């Protein structure tokens, strides 16, 4: 049973999202997530966390995790997030995420989680050896969102199913505990260029931190030579680029590269093809490398510079965590009261 959809949430509009500190950030993370956070911070109350609780669903070296967390914070800042506008914080610093996740573990149904394709992809053939945390990852994600009563969540296409689960959990909680409109039915913000950037080696596979091939992705810390070289070696087909977007059908690698160009240059695929239709990859790839270098190299340089001052990054993360707690703590307190816990 879910909530009566006629009862709507009345609270403020808030944006929340995060990225795991589980490896080097890549172009897909930038275009699918970071670039969108930067735009949204001007329009909404914005909470952007470093998803360290999510990261440990697969093994993370304890000696590296805090440094990886600072690295994601540096990537946020270097991409243009303003810590005066957006609260930037480590997920583990706000304990309400984990508390609400437990309550939601008792709201979500096994059948709902069994349908999550990302678990199947990440656990692979040996799912009995995967952590329980990897299985309940989408429930923690629902808690991340709803502990701020976030109304909008910018993510890449791969997270669509998890956002649907978040709505199901919110609806079921509101219904089961007779708390109409307590949690919002969060809207995913997925549309737009960059929602699904594919591997440079395989136009059918998502660009991913965990792909064993370094050539499959452009990292935010790659220098200009590495970016140009990876684009030069990117898989393509022998045909010239089509004149119109329909001509990209059945050509996943060409489609991906045109999409990347568009997302980086803030142009539609049609506009990119208006310039490059009929031209071969020998012309298009150097132009793509130029635009990628122009956007990404300054971000990488700024990240390196920020990483030279870990104390300043920690100060930003601490102050972001204070702001996050100020919103999350009353929500978890009220949730505990609704559930009926002693002393709540
Ligand atoms: N290829 C992609 N295209 C567009 N958006 C993407 N995102 C990830 N890959 C792409 C978006 O980046 C955000 C943060 O992702 P995450 O750190 O939570 O990890 P993930 O989704 O599991 O992405 P990765 O980088 O590919 O890691 P692995 O290899 O561990 O799976 C999310 O908003 C995601 O949609």
Summarize this entry quickly:
This protein folds into two domains: 14-195 and 309-339, HUPs (Rossmann fold, 3-Layer(aba) Sandwich); 214-305, Orthogonal Bundle (Tyrosyl-Transfer RNA Synthetase), CATH 1.10.240. Helix content is 52%, strand content 7%.
Number of domains: 2
Distance between the termini: 26 Å
Strand arrangement, major sheet: 1-2-3
CATH architecture of the largest domain: 3-Layer(aba) Sandwich
The set of bound ligands, ions and cofactors reads: adenosine-5'-tetraphosphate
Q: Which parts are unreliable, with pLDDT below 50 for 5 consecutive residues or more?
A: none
Average pLDDT across residues?
94
The number of E-state strands comes to 5
Query: Which strand-content bin applies to the residues?
Result: 5-15%
Helix content: 40-55%
What is the CATH fold-level name of the largest domain? Answer: Rossmann fold
Structural class given helices, strands, pairing? mainly alpha
Full CATH superfamily name of the largest domain: HUPs
Query: Total number of helical segments?
Result: 13
Radius of gyration: 21 Å
Question: What does the largest sheet look like?
Answer: 3 strands, parallel
Shape: globular
> Can you write the helix and strand succession as a string?
EHEHHEHHHHEHEHHHHH
CATH class of the largest domain: Alpha Beta
Descriptors for this entry?
2 domains; 344 residues; three-stranded parallel beta sheet; 52% helix; mainly alpha; single chain; 7% strand; two-stranded parallel ribbon; Rossmann fold; 13 helices; binds adenosine-5'-tetraphosphate; Tyrosyl-Transfer RNA Synthetase; 5 strands
